């Protein structure tokens, strides 16, 4: 009985670690600051993540592919992405389409995660406002863990070319969200090994 109780406690404790991250819902209180309500301060060093987009311009009502990715072997579990004026105002522009791994937030002017697995590279479709809005930028909050996150990581300038002649750009993207599956499977394997080790120790 003691053996099974010991295994159960270990298993539930470690399972709790896997499931301790939110799914990105109910974050509208953070739409302005982009700070997650995790009871911790944001990191002050340079984030190991970046925001890129294609094409480098937009016109009223056009679509831009926005990609968030890591710049090292550091993965992110959560995120929030918005478009704002390049000059630095807090007004949000455009809307994001949801994907299999994201939810809308802030009246669809932001996109957030819907799973707690590790992520390396994800892309989203952003639709520009119906009217010219000036040069913009994308901002993102990246969450590595509940108490480790970077707020308002900024992209380069997205140029407003509404009313101008532009050349169509072929934008291709690849997503890497499968790392979340690999990581969780590896973690569960470690849990299993720990449980088996404890059984052997107790029975001996």
From TrEMBL:
Q: Does the keyword Amino-acid biosynthesis apply?
A: no
Output the Gene Ontology cellular-component terms.
Answer: membrane
Q: Does the keyword Transmembrane apply?
A: yes
Entry's Gene3D superfamilies?
A: Reeler domain
The UniProt entry, under Pfam families, shows: Reeler
Q: Which keywords does the record carry? A: Membrane, Signal, Transmembrane, Transmembrane helix
Which segments cross the bilayer?
185-203
Q: Which InterPro entries match?
A: Ferric-chelate_Red/DefProt, Reeler_dom, Reeler_sf
Residue ranges constituting the Reelin domain according to the UniProt record: 12-175
Which residues belong to the signal peptide in this entry? 1-20
Q: What's the protein called, per UniProt?
A: Reelin domain-containing protein
Q: Which organism is it from?
A: Biomphalaria glabrata
